[in-house]
Design brief:
The protein contains 22 helices and two strands. The chain is mainly α.
Length: 404
């Protein structure tokens, strides 16, 4: 590692962004705060990242996410003349410096900022290497370095440079950039060769480094054949701050379990996923399913099911047939046939949707009765007991369907 920053900044880079499992994150954060208060522009930039949320710092640290504080420290980094601060702030979506420009003294152009960060990278500073690799990957280097792009071959050249640097920092133990590296190897964009086996090995390397998203991905490969190993990886991912770890653990005990079904255990894991991530849509869906269906000593609770489904439905329609059923029959929510039909039609081929849509049209629930249309839905699942029972109320005559 190149010791080009204040030692507290270098310590933070190593313990927050390189080796995030060292256990020294809180101490590293305090060092950044101290250096920033003393007027170190580089420390200000890295402190801003700590306040910027999970896209900028591992969620496993549990650092406070505060947009106002992040914006203030990004601004101070620029105003104190940090090249990494200026270059890094350019990539923060929606951020505009209060001084009116990302370029600030002692630099007079983006090219000068780029040259300084490249110099630091060549001197061995690992985070600067990461920044340079990102600039090649996202194409920022074109503007920063004043490059000319004449076709796909020039874009490929940038991508190859990114690959080289990403692999270099990965060899040094830094997993940041791994997702971009895997994308280059699998997307085939710009004519880059696809190497899925190499990408697969990189995911395994990410799991070995304790990166939650890769622990989950690798765990899923073992879910059917080696469930014990899969669960170990999912637990590790959860410990590392990835809510999908708890979600996948819950799935292994839920209705479609290929392991040993235990809805009480599944419920606990889904609740943990939600506590970790309030936007854990998958966990809301499957927790709602448990409340909707019950089992293993858990009673049906439609009110709780509806509350879970409402957290998910605007993002993911998986629960639409269950939520639609609740609206259709007033289960845990006031009856609303129009809302029910809207929801059931989002996934019209599931059993619950066909059951509900058949009822809506056959009985004329909120729409003019159309028994034939109702039957067309019920006929998709002709052997289901509920549908057989409904059909007993109707008779097909020479002149069409009639209600008995």
């Amino acid at each position: 590692m190149g010791g080009v920053f204040d030692e507290r900044v270098e310590y933070a880079i190593q313990n927050i962004w390189v080796n995030s499992r060292s256990g020294n994150g809180p101490q590293a954060l305090e060092g950044l705060r101290e250096a920033a208060r003393e007027g170190d522009g580089d420390a200000c930039y890295f402190l801003a990242r700590c306040y910027s949320g999970p896209c900028y710092v591992d969620p496993g640290f549990g650092f406070e996410s505060d947009d106002d504080k992040a914006e203030e420290w990004y601004n101070k980094s620029i105003e104190l003349g940090s090249a990494v601060g200026m270059m890094g702030a350019m990539r923060v979506g929606g951020f505009q410096p209060r001084c009116g420009s990302f370029v600030h003294a002692p630099y007079t152009s983006k090219r000068e900022i780029w040259d300084k960060v490249v110099e630091l990278a060549r001197g061995g500073q690992i985070f600067c290497k990461y920044m340079v690799a990102n600039a090649y990957y996202y194409g920022d280097a074109v503007e920063l370095a004043g490059l000319t792009i004449n076709g796909p071959q020039d874009v490929c050249s940038l991508q190859r440079k990114a690959v080289q640097i990403y692999e270099e920092i990965l060899a040094e133990g830094m997993a940041m950039g791994l997702g971009n590296l895997i994308d280059i190897l699998t997307s085939g964009d710009y004519g880059m060769p696809v190497d899925r086996e190499r990408a697969r090995r990189l995911e395994e390397r990410g799991a070995q480094l304790g990166i939650g998203v890769y622990e989950v991905k690798v765990g899923l490969r073992y879910a059917d054949t080696q469930p014990g190993k899969a669960m170990e990886l999912f637990r590790s991912a959860a410990e590392h701050g990835d809510s999908d770890g708890y979600y996948e653990l819950g799935r292994m005990y839920s209705y479609r379990s290929k392991n040993v079904r235990n809805l009480n255990t599944a419920k606990e894991y889904f609740e943990k996923a939600i506590r970790m991530d309030a936007q854990a849509v998958g966990a809301y869906n499957l927790l709602g399913e448990i409340y909707f269906k019950g089992g293993d000593g858990l009673e049906v609770n439609y009110q709780e099911a509806v509350q879970c489904f409402l957290k998910a439905i605007d993002i993911n329609t998986w629960c639409s047939d269950m939520l639609g059923t609740c609206y259709l029959h007033g289960l845990g929510v006031p009856q609303d046939c129009a809302r029910a039909r809207e929801l059931l039609e989002k996934r019209p081929d599931t059993y619950l949707s066909c059951l509900g849509l058949g009822e809506i049209y056959a009985y004329g629930m909120g729409v003019p009765a159309d028994i034939g249309k109702g039957m067309s839905y019920w006929d998709k699942f002709p052997r289901e007991p509920e549908i057989i029972e409904h059909k007993k109320h109707f008779k097909k005559t020479l002149f069409g369907w009639k209600k008995r």
